[in-house]
Amino acid sequence: MRTRAVGALLLLLAQPAHAGQLGAGAAPWWVWPLGLFVACFLMGIVAVPAGIGGGTLFVPIVGSFFPFHLDFVRGAGLLVALASALSAGPMLLRSGLGSLRLALPLAVLASASSIGGAMLGLAMPAHVVQMLLGAVVLGIVVLMFVARKSEFPQVERPDTLSQALALHGVFVDGASRRTVQWRVHRSVPGLFVFLAIGVLAGMFGIGAGWANVPALNLLMGAPLKVAAGTSSVVLSLVDSAAAWVYLNKGAVLPMIAVPSVVGMMLGARIGARLLNVLNGSVIRRLVIAVLLFAGTRALLKGSGVWP
Amino acid sequence: MKNPGDLAVQPPEQMRYAQWLDWGTRVGLVVLLLSFAAYVMGLAESHVPVSRLPELWVHPVGRFLELTDSPTGWGWLALVHRGDIAGLLGIAILAGSSVLCLLALVPMHLARGDKAFAAVCVAEVLVVLLAASGWLPGGH
User: Fold this and answer.
1) Is CB count within 10 Å lower at the N or C end of chain B?
2) Mean predicted lDDT score pLDDT of chain A
3) Helix/strand/coil for A236
4) Where are the alpha helices (DSSP H) in A51-186?
5) ipTM value of the model?
6) pLDDT of amino acid B58
7) What is the span of the domain harbouring residue A39?
8) Beta carbons of B129 and B99 less than 8 angstroms apart
9) How far apart are CA A85 and CA A145, in angstroms?
10) Which residues of A touch B121 (CB under 8 A)?
11) What pLDDT score does A293 carry?
12) What is the DSSP string of chain B?
């Protein structure tokens, strides 16, 4: 029953979008921000239980099914991801689930590369960006299928750089009420991975939590909860830098960005409340199906097969 | 109810950053919502009439700017009294809030002799300021 309800929810998600393809010129202006608000509200609800950032859903879905040019969708996507990360950041930092010390060195490189990614994305023809976006979204689907998770990875010996920068911390695990001391390793490969993540975040305007969390958890050895919390802090910095590029180039339209941000944040609050009610794995599979559809659609739209 | 994670003491610079970020985000969101409400209610004249948006937002940003004679870089500040442009103020506050938070940490790191992290904070501030400067080339 619940599965059907969530399935209907996700189908509804595509409805205003599909309408957008049919009658972009005929509908009154207010239909689009309203449809965007509803679509983002629904995306926000499913994003939390699915364990994926709303920004990751926003660009492929809105870019594929709404009439806005991809430049404005990416600008709005960055703001959706930025506003969500900024809102969650203070609580995560106070609780120790986000580590500023771990986030900052990674964010410096990722922010710099996100500027390059944003400039590159705005300079490339839209159909090329759309095709690349489709490929990245399909890559995210594969990653969601195959990526393992490690609650508390073993870090035998921190590397020299992480020792020098004191990349370690402590938090109290809410589930076990245990105080967990953590440290990281492989910080140099981690820095290179975040350099690449920054390019993707800036170029496509998608939140990069899907890449941040495995990099922090599986590569650098941060506990899963610290990886998820620190990913949000990294995102808040990386998306700030990239958002300025889109803002300065005129690619941020408040009429697209604001309903998206508000809808996503309200939806995420409902999603967080429904976390214990909804079946996370079912929603995750449904979200994967929607991403698979949106990624394929972006690929076909970019290549001109399904304009 | 107190968050169980609060039981583990976090570094003072992390707590200060969280506090400043919290305020920056609240101010940014309030400005964003109020300016947008004024925009859609027509309380301030728009630079681009809302009724024209559906025919304009289908174009790449370069063409959109040509058709609407909209500013780039910091040019929007001169038009901030217009309903649609005012929305960019809240967005700028959100995108710039981390700069003040990071600058607030530099004296704390220096006082502890942690020059490496003070330098990391300054480096991140410089990266965001470079992005915000409007000096970067590119675009359609």
Assistant:
1) N
2) 86
3) helix
4) 54-65, 70-95, 100-123, 126-146, 160-164
5) 0.91
6) 94
7) 2-303
8) yes
9) 24
10) 104
11) 87
12) ---GGGGSPPPHHHHHHHHHHHHHHHHHHHHHHHHHHHHHTTSS--SS-GGGHHHHTTS-HHHHHHHHT---GGGGGGGTTSHHHHHHHHHHHHHHHHHHHHHHHHHHHHHTT-HHHHHHHHHHHHHHHHHHHS------
| A298 and A125 Cβ atoms separated by less than 8 Å | no
Number of domains in chain A: 1
> For residue A121, which of A64, A61, A73 has the smallest C-alpha distance?
A73
Name, in order, each residue with C-beta under 8 angstroms of B127's C-beta and a sequence gap of 6 or more: A108, A111, A112, A115, A241
Distance from CA of A164 to the nearest CA of B (A): 9
CA of B20 vs chain A CAs: smallest distance (Å) = 9
Contact A64, A21 (CB under 8 A): no
Chain A, chain B: beta-carbon pairs less than 8 Å apart: 218
Q: Which residues of B touch A80 (CB under 8 A)?
A: none
The half-sphere exposure of B139 on its side-chain side, counting CA atoms within 13 A, is 22
Do the Cβ atoms of A250 and B64 come within 8 Å? yes
Q: What pLDDT score does A150 carry? A: 79
When mean pLDDT is compared across A9-13, A150-154, A268-272, B74-78, the lowest value belongs to: A9-13
- Largest interatomic CA distance in chain B: 58
Query: What's the confidence (pLDDT) of residue B7?
Result: 54
Question: What tokens does A156 get?
Answer: 């035998």
> Nearest Cα to A299, choosing from A182, A127, A99, A44?
A127
d(Cα A93, Cα B84) in Å, to the nearest integer?
34
Yes or no, beta carbons of B131 and A120 under 8 Å apart: no
As given in the structure block, the two tokens for residue A304 are 């001109």
Output the pTM of the full model.
Answer: 0.88
Q: What is the pLDDT of residue A120?
A: 92
Please enumerate in sequence order all residues whose Cβ is within 8 A of that of A93, keeping only pairs 6 or more positions apart, or say none.
Answer: A99, A100, A229, A233, B10, B14, B15, B17, B18, B21
